[in-house]
């Protein structure tokens, strides 16, 4: 699958499709396009970046779920890193500016907790990087036929 095919598939045909399977090329081409355009949109400001992320979060999660399903794993696992990130963002201590009246600086315990959360996130990211780079099943699995077979039939 080429870059343009991947982007077209993820943004139109399978925008919110969590069923079926996605090949490595479909996932990684779309992820590359997301990162490339995300950096460009980021230069336009935070509002533009927020709109961009909200527009592509659904196809991004959907293609990730289909990619995991291609390797025989449940697509719902794609929500684990997202849930951890939200949990850690909620639990993380604030970082007040120096000298802000009435705000206590972060304690050593809070700093250690934040470091532990960061290390857990890094470990989870590495695990998911490994999972998402694994070859898909050659044959049909519980989530359908291999993506190449589906593309050839279409």
TrEMBL record:
It comes from the Bacteria. The chain crosses the membrane at residues 27-44, 50-68, 75-92, 112-131. It holds the Pfam family DUF805. Keywords: Membrane, Transmembrane, Transmembrane helix. The keyword Plastid does not apply. GO terms for cellular component: plasma membrane. This is Uncharacterized membrane protein YhaH, DUF805 family. The lineage of its organism: Bacteria, Pseudomonadati, Pseudomonadota, Alphaproteobacteria, Rhodobacterales.
